[in-house]
Design brief:
The complex is a heterodimer of chains A (about 400) and B (about 230). Chain A has about 400 residues and is an alpha+beta fold. Chain A has 16 helices and 10 strands. In chain A, helix 1 packs across helix 12 and helix 2 runs antiparallel to helix 14. Chain B has one domain: P-loop containing nucleotide triphosphate hydrolases (Rossmann fold, 3-Layer(aba) Sandwich). Chain B has a 6-stranded mixed sheet with strand order 6-7-8-3-9-10. Chain B has a 4-stranded antiparallel sheet with strand order 2-1-4-5, with helices on one face. Classes of the chains: A alpha+beta (about 400), B alpha/beta (about 230). At the A-B interface, helix 1, helix 11 and helix 16 of A face helix 2 and helix 3 of B.
C-alpha cells in the first residue's frame, strides 16, 4: 500500500473510539437519508401515478386555453377521428376522448351543480381508474345510452341510488338550453372527496347530443405505462396536431401544476431538515479532524522540519477525512439500501398514515423508490460536507511554524 | 572546503519587556565532512543556531550560506526543499511517527523526495542494518528502546545522503552507555558517508567525540578550537 495512504489509515485509528463515534454518526445519517429520500421519492411516484391514473392521464390534447378556461366552446372538432388517428400512431398508449360541462343535476329531492363528463365507455377504463372504483352497479356501456355514473358523496347528497332518474340542466355549445334525463347505473367511490362529491360521467354520444356538441369534445386523454414515456408520447401527439393551431398537447406537469408544487414544497421542507442533519455530521467531522491536527502539532512540526511541505501534510489530513467519510458512506449505503430494498418489497406504513395519505391521494402503504439517485443523493452530500469540514483543519497546517510546533506538548 | 558559512548572525527574542539575545553577532565557517560539537549551558544559543542553519527560524540579521545557497534569503518552499534534500535532523526526543514502523519512518522522507518504492526499501534496509537495527525494521517506535529509536532517527536523517546533519542534544534522553554507542555510530557515519555533523550538546562525553568544539554563552561564541 502507498505509504501516505497507509499513514493516513493508521492515523485514523490512533483514537479508535473517537473515529468510530464520528463514523457511526455518518452511518446513522446516511441510513436515515437513504430511508427518508427513498420513501419520499417512492411517495412522489405513487402520488403522481395515482393522481394521473385516476382521471387526467399523462398527456392531453385540448383546445388552446381550455386548461386555464374550460369553456364549452373551447372544443376539439371531430374528436373521435383524431382519437383513432392517435391510437394508430401510439399503439402502446391508452387513448380516450372526453367532453365536459358544468351543469345542474336534480333528483326528486335536491339539485346540485356538478361537472359532467362525456366519456367513451369502451376506452375510459384504460385511462382512468374511476370505472374500476364502482361501489355499486356497473359502468357505462353504450355510446348513446341515457345513463350516468356518479360519485358516492354526490349520490348521498342527491339522495339517489341505482336505477333512480336524474335530470340534467345546462347550456349547449351553441348557447341553447340543454336538458336530459338519465338513469343512475353506477356509483363510484374514488377516495377523493372532490371527485366523489362533484363529478358524474355519461356516455360521450349522449353528451354530444344533449349539449349540442355535434362531433366535438374537449379533451383526448393519453395514458402511458410510466413517466419515462411522457416526453416521447407528447412529441408524437404534437406531430399529430401539427397544422391545427387551435389545438395543443399538454403533459401532466401542465395539466396538474399543483402536483409539482406540492412535491416541491414537500421537498423544500424535507431538505431543510436533511440540511441540519448533514451540517451536524459535518461539525462532528470538523471536531474530530481539528482535535486530530491539534494533538499532532509537535509531530507535524517535526515532519515540516524534515522538509515536508504543508501542502503534503494538508493532503494527508484530507486523505484521513476522505477515508473516514468513505467508511461511513459504504456502511451507511449498504445498510440504507438493505432497509430501503426490504421496504420496497414489503411496504412501509405507520398508524394514521392512511388518513394522511388520503389528503395526497396516497394509499396507506408506501413503497420506497430504490434508485441510484435515492441511494446516493443523501450519502453523497454527507460525504461532500465531511470533506469540506476537514478543509479548515488542513488549512491550519499552512500556518505551522516548525520551531513553535516542535515546542508543543 | 567550507560547507557552511555563517556571518554576523543576530537573533533576539522578546519576553514581555525583556529582549533576549539568542544569537549575538555569531560568525562561523564549517568545513565539509567535519564533526563539530556546539556546547554551552541552556539558553546559550546552541539550539537557536541550529534552527537558523537548518532554516527553521528567521534571523534578525546576518548571512548563512550552505554550499552557495543563501539560507537567510530563501522563502518557505525553497527552505523546505533545502531541508528535504540537504539537511538531516536528529532531535532530543527522537520524534518518530508512532504509527509507522522503523523502516517506514526511514522511508517517509524518501517518499516525499519522490524515490521509487524499491529504491526506498533497499536504502532503508541498508541504513537500518548500518545503524544496527537489522531484524527490527518492522517494529514500531513504541516497541523499540530509546537508544533504538534514536538510531532510527539517525537512519532517517542520513538515509538520503544530506550534506549536513544537525543534531540537537541527541543523547539527552539516553543512558551513558547507549549515548556512547550512539556517538560511535554518528562518528562512523560521519567518516563513512562524509556528512558534516553539527551537534548541540552539554554532555561532556559527547564533546570528546568532536573534531572541533565550539563553546557558546549568552548567544556568543566564546571558544572555538580543534580537538585532537
Amino acid at each position: 500500500m502507498n505509504l501516505t495512504l497507509s499513514l493516513a489509515w493508521r492515523n485514523l485509528w490512533r483514537h479508535k473510539r473517537r473515529t468510530w463515534l464520528t463514523v457511526v454518526a455518518m452511518i446513522f445519517s446516511n441510513v436515515l437519508l437513504v430511508f427518508m429520500i427513498s420513501i419520499q421519492f417512492g411517495s412522489y411516484q405513487m402520488m403522481i401515478d395515482n393522481t394521473l391514473a385516476t382521471f387526467s392521464g399523462h398527456v392531453q390534447i385540448q383546445h388552446v386555453g381550455y386548461n386555464e378556461n374550460p369553456k364549452i366552446r373551447n372544443s376539439i372538432p371531430t374528436i373521435l377521428p383524431l382519437s383513432e388517428q392517435l391510437r394508430s400512431v401510439l399503439p402502446k398508449a391508452h387513448i380516450a376522448a372526453r367532453a365536459s360541462v358544468f351543469a345542474l343535476v336534480s333528483s326528486e329531492k335536491r339539485s346540485l351543480g356538478i361537472q359532467i363528463i362525456g366519456v367513451q365507455p369502451a376506452f375510459e377504463a384504460r385511462v382512468s381508474t374511476l370505472p374500476g372504483l364502482l361501489q355499486e352497479g356497473r359502468f357505462l356501456k353504450e355510446m348513446n345510452a341515457d345513463e350516468i355514473v356518479i360519485g358516492s358523496t354526490l349520490a348521498r347528497n342527491l339522495k339517489v341510488s341505482l336505477g333512480d332518474e336524474l335530470t340534467l340542466l345546462g347550456s349547449g355549445r351553441d348557447g341553447s338550453f340543454a336538458a336530459g334525463v338519465v338513469i343512475v347505473s353506477g356509483i363510484f367511490a374514488s377516495g377523493s372527496n372532490d371527485l366523489d362529491r362533484s363529478l358524474a360521467e355519461v356516455p360521450l354520444g349522449y353528451f354530444q347530443e344533449t349539449f349540442a356538441m355535434r362531433n366535438q369534445g374537449h379533451t383526448i386523454v393519453i395514458a402511458v405505462d410510466g413517466l419515462d414515456q411522457v416526453a416521447a408520447t407528447l412529441s408524437v401527439a404534437r406531430e399529430q396536431i401539427n397544422g391545427q393551431s387551435q389545438l395543443v398537447a399538454l403533459d401532466w406537469n401542465q395539466l396538474q401544476p399543483g402536483l409539482r408544487q406540492a412535491i416541491q414544497a414537500d421537498l423544500t421542507s424535507a431538505w431543510f431538515m436533511y440540511g441540519i442533519l448533514i451540517i451536524l455530521v459535518a461539525f462532528s467531522v470538523l471536531n474530530t479532524q481539528l482535535m486530530s491536527v491539534l494533538e499532532r502539532t509537535r509531530e507535524f512540526g517535526v515532519i515540516t522540519a524534515l522538509g515536508v511541505k504543508p501542502r503534503k501534510l494538508a493532503s494527508l489530513v484530507m486523505l484521513e477525512a476522505v477515508l473516514m467519510a468513505l467508511i461511513g458512506l459504504v456502511i451507511g449505503l449498504v445498510l440504507g439500501w438493505m432497509l430501503a430494498y426490504y421496504l420496497s418489497i414489503n411496504g412501509f406504513s405507520y398508524p394514521g398514515m392512511e388518513q394522511m395519505g388520503e389528503k395526497f391521494n396516497l394509499p396507506g402503504v408506501i413503497y420506497p423508490s430504490v434508485s441510484l439517485l435515492s441511494m446516493l443523493l443523501g450519502p453523497g452530500l454527507v460525504f461532500l460536507f465531511c470533506i469540506l469540514a476537514s478543509i479548515y483543519p488542513s488549512l491550519r497546517l499552512f500556518r505551522l511554524q516548525p520551531v513553535e510546533a516542535m515546542r508543543a506538548v | 572546503m567550507t560547507a557552511i558559512k555563517c556571518v554576523d548572525l543576530c537573533k533576539n527574542y522578546e519576553q514581555g519587556d525583556v529582549v533576549i539575545k539568542a544569537l549575538d553577532h555569531v560568525s562561523l565557517d564549517i568545513d565539509a565532512g567535519s564533526f563539530i560539537c556546539l556546547s554551552g549551558p541552556s539558553g546559550s544559543g546552541k539550539t537557536t543556531l541550529l534552527n537558523m542553519i537548518g532554516g527553521l527560524d528567521k534571523l534578525d540579521s546576518g548571512e548563512i550560506d550552505i554550499d552557495g545557497q543563501r539560507v537567510d534569503q530563501l522563502g518557505k518552499g525553497p527552505l523546505a526543499d533545502l531541508r528535504l534534500h540537504n539537511i538531516g535532523f536528529v532531535f532530543q526526543s527522537y520524534n518518530l511517527i508512532p504509527v509507522l514502523s522503523a523502516r517506514e519512518n526511514v522511508e517517509f522522507v524518501m517518499q516525499v523526495q519522490g524515490m521509487t518504492a524499491a529504491e526506498r526499501r533497499n536504502k532503508s534496509l541498508a541504513i537500518l542494518k548500518e545503524v544496527g537495527l537489522a531484524g527490527m525494521e518492522d517494529r514500531r517506535p513504541a516497541e523499540l528502546s530509546g537508544g533504538q529509536q534514536q538510531r532510527v532517527a539517525v537512519a532517517r536523517a542520513i538515509v538520503s545522503q544530506p550534506k549536513l546533519v544537525l543534531a540537537d542534544e541527541p543523547t539527552a534522553n539516553l543512558d551513558s552507555n547507549t549515548a556512547r554507542q550512539l556517538m560511535d555510530l554518528l562518528r562512523k557515519l560521519n567518516q563513512h558517508h562524509h556528512v558534516t555533523f553539527l551537534i548541540a550538546t552539554h554532555d561532556e562525553q559527547v564533546m570528546e567525540y568532536a573534531e572541533r568544539l565550539i563553546k557558546m554563552q549568552d548567544g556568543k561564541v566564546i571558544n572555538d578550537q580543534l580537538q585532537a
